[in-house]
Batch of 2 targets.
Target 1
Amino acid sequence: MVVLSQPPALEHCSLIKTCKPTCVFTGIPVIDLRDPEAKTLIVKACEEYGFFKLINHGVPMEFMTRLEAEALSFFNLPQSDKDKATPFGYGSNKIGPNGDVGWIEYLLVNTNPQLTSLKTLSENFCSYAVNDYILAVKRLAFEVVEIMADGLEIEPRNVLSRLLRDEKSDSCFRLNHYPPCPQLQALSGRNLIGFGEHTDPQIISILRSNNTSGLQICLRDRTWVSVPPDQTSFFISVGDALQVMSNGRLRSVRHRVLTDSMKSRVSMIYFGGPPMSEKIVALPCLMAKGEESLYKEFTWWEYKTCAYNSRLGANRLGLFEKT
Ligand code: GA4
């Protein structure tokens, strides 16, 4: 068991009572990247859930296990050492700048090689496992959005991937550690929020976690369901920017993470975003004749600024809907 040198105070985290017991959802679409039907299945999954599990993805398992081991050795350092990494993206309990809290500690860096945060982080805290992993997951993200473009029958097929491949792409990478919370056992029927409900603002997110459950997604009928963990696969989520670019056809998925009472959860997520100056608008090639865009025009910089001025769980896209 991982023991935090300074456990976050329980009263600082949001204790929520689940209204209905959440069930483990067995209906998450599972997509084999090598399946000739993958393009159609990916689009279907993103329309229905904004979420799917990807298998046969080609990223070597050692890339994941090496980074997970390095992340754990970092998160197991004394608190005073981890606090030294605050300028390089370390944070605990606080999520974003507007008062959101969670039972979590993390490292959050921009993946743009021109910015120094990732470089400094890998040199000082995570050696090079993080670089291998990010490179592999970026390539996977490019491939997934290219297959998605094929499935959407849009041309050129790099219409989405060019935004992630751009050297100015505003993408980031997050390593999350959710320590177990044994006190939860005494609070039967209550759940502790590790990471509160939200949608990801970017285009696409690629998540890998260890075998500890906790991730939940919100279905169309607004019920929350638990995603069975699978440390060998990736979970892919549609972000707000892709919802806008597809004029609402693909939906960005609301999700959250609940704390486990016994097991620590480690997740690693690549958030693929466009360059700051990019206009986020419905792709003309996806609009039917006479179809109106559902959202007002904005740049990624404007949307990101709005996200950082809002609470985690806010319906940010609502502010950009045409009335
Ligand atoms: C949610 C998705 C990513 O983790 C993240 C988060 C960011 C942060 O933790 O700094 C935000 C959150 C996320 C959306 C609203 C704002 C910004 C915290 C917050 C309250 C890195 C991102 O890009 O947006």
Note: The two ends are 51 Å apart (CA to CA).
Target 2
Amino acid sequence: PGLMRGKRGLIMGVANNRSIAWGIAKACHNHGADLAFTYQGDALKKRVEPLAEEVDGIVVGHCDVSEPATIDAAFQAVEAAWGSLDFVVHAIAFSDKDQLDGRYIDTTEDNFVKTMLISCYSFTAIAQRAEKLMTNGGSMLTLTYYGAEKWMPHYNVMGLAKAALESSVRYLAADLGQKNIRVNAISAGPIKTLAASGIGDFRYILKWNEYNTPLRRNVSLDEVGDSAAYFLSDLSRGVTGEIHHVDAGYHVVG
Ligand code: 0WD
């Protein structure tokens, strides 16, 4: 239980109690970490505040990663509250729902740029701010999906954004290693969340995984949370630049 005692982490990307970021927050809390949360917009504020309270966390405010001033404000609030930071979780992605269906080739320039900005560049933008606060080293974690590596139905431009995100994990790891800041990603199997419900045929993908993963089931929020606790704690102190599959083994099959 004391694995993460004394560690302070910022969790970005909680939308509700089914969010992967929430699964990670619960695991970190169970291991004794102190948590801060951002939310995107007033609608989510009402959702995030009671959840933060549940894990004795603080809410540092609104952060929309497509508005850099709000990223700055969030990190300034963290600095004001804590002075330094040990870990950050980036569980943020976006693409127009009508382009998470059908063919990749039909992607518009506008949605391509927006998907890349919110789902990929935002992790780098966050790393820039987090680096300054990680004065005792640190751990940064993002969330990716197998659609980065292989074609997956309906994942489309998000697959490209995740491929770029995974590459950015390697480049950020190299940039920040000398400061003992580690950068990793969890490639999670499909989980029914708000974001996932925007992907065409998602229920079919869940069923497909249930029949075809080595473990013959899907993964849970708690399982992703437990693996995240490894990356965000000192247990993984020798690990950086890693894309770690928490997918019931699907990556050896598909
Ligand atoms: O099957 C899944 N659910 C998987 C998700 C499998 C593998 C990876 N992932 C990834 C997602 O791509 C994402 O990077 O996990 C991450 C977290 O996603 P989630 O937990 O599946 O989805 P959700 O609970 O909806 O949280 C994502 C949140 C947004 O929620 P909505 O649904 O309202 O878009 O990302 C946040 C927002 O809270 N978000 C933003 N935050 C700041 N600025 C922005 C933005 N511009 N856009 C979205």
Note: The two ends are 36 Å apart (CA to CA).
